[in-house]
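From the shared-data thread, chain only:
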Amino acid sequence: MVEVHRKPIMDWVKEVLQDPYLYHYIHWYPERVFVRHGDSGWIWCIDEPWTGDDLWDAWVKYLIYSIASF
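Structure, as tokens:
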């Protein structure tokens, strides 16, 4: 017999967000990361989900909406 444990997702999310150790490893905002590419200059490096276009674009739209709401 296999035991299955379940937990409501919001309880798990709250636990992760309140964990003092994990809190510092959570990326709260999108980032644009650039790396030096030889003599040709800097290139945009997408190596994690929070460094990609989709999150960046969503964040920019959120900020524009928030500012426009004032």
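The mean pLDDT is 83.
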